[in-house]
Amino acid sequence: FRDLANGLAQQGIAVLRYDKRGYTYPEAYTVTDLNTLTIDFQTIDDALLATELLRSESIVDPDKVFLIGHDLGALVAPRIDAQAGYAGYIMIASPSRPWSEAAYDQAVNYGMNGMEYDSVQYLKPMLKSEIEEIRKINELDEDKLSTPMLNQYAYFWKDLNAFDYAQMVADTDKPVMILQGGADYQIRADVDYKGWEEKLNGKEH
To answer: Is 187 exposed, middle or buried (0-12, 13-18, 19+ CB in 10 A)?
Structure first.
């Protein structure tokens, strides 16, 4: 991200980048009201505040602000745009499928890297069970929404799954750039980028 920011700055483009609050302020997660731990809390609220700050700078044209999101931040870029009204947005390494499906791959291919074979075989069915719960998140009783699933509370998944992000990208008339590294083993080019190509087939390039 620093290299990207420096490269843009050399082209005369002002850049504001920041760490997610959960990284910089992990104590922010010590809350008792779990229903506040949504994607808004984790990502969207701070993006909107950063946008407001950037637009207040005299060197920035407020009508020419773009958003660059990576991974989960990229997935919800159209949702942030719906509130912030960017000139366009860039999605880097964004899954074209539900985030929980990509998170499962990350847990298996990255999070379990180096684990003993027996441990992996024990954990995989548990993860698959959580995936099934996330798929039917809207059917869960209220008392089950505080249950952790794939390292997030069910409130997070219910909020995240409430939008069809791929359709939001397909419906926008704004310029959108989707970038994917071929060697990325968390968000996969052969699955996710290909999925974007299929879902946006027929859109003007």
So the answer is: buried
**Could you tell me how many residues make up the chain?**
205
Q: What angle do CA 42, 45, 46 make, to 5 degrees?
A: 80
Cα gap 205→82, rounded to integer Å: 21
Please give the Cα distance from 136 to 138 (Å, whole number). 6
Q: Taking each helix axis from N to C terminus, what angle separates 99-106 and 117-135, rounded to the nearest 10 degrees?
A: 170
At residue 32, does pLDDT exceed 70? no
Per-residue pLDDT, averaged over 34-47, amounts to 86
What's the pTM value of the predicted model, to 2 decimals?
0.86
DSSP annotation of 65 reads -
Task: Flag the least confident range among 88-97, 104-113, 181-190.
Answer: 104-113
Mean pLDDT (the chain, rounded)? 86
Alpha helices in 25-108 (DSSP H): 39, 45-55, 72-75, 77-84, 99-106
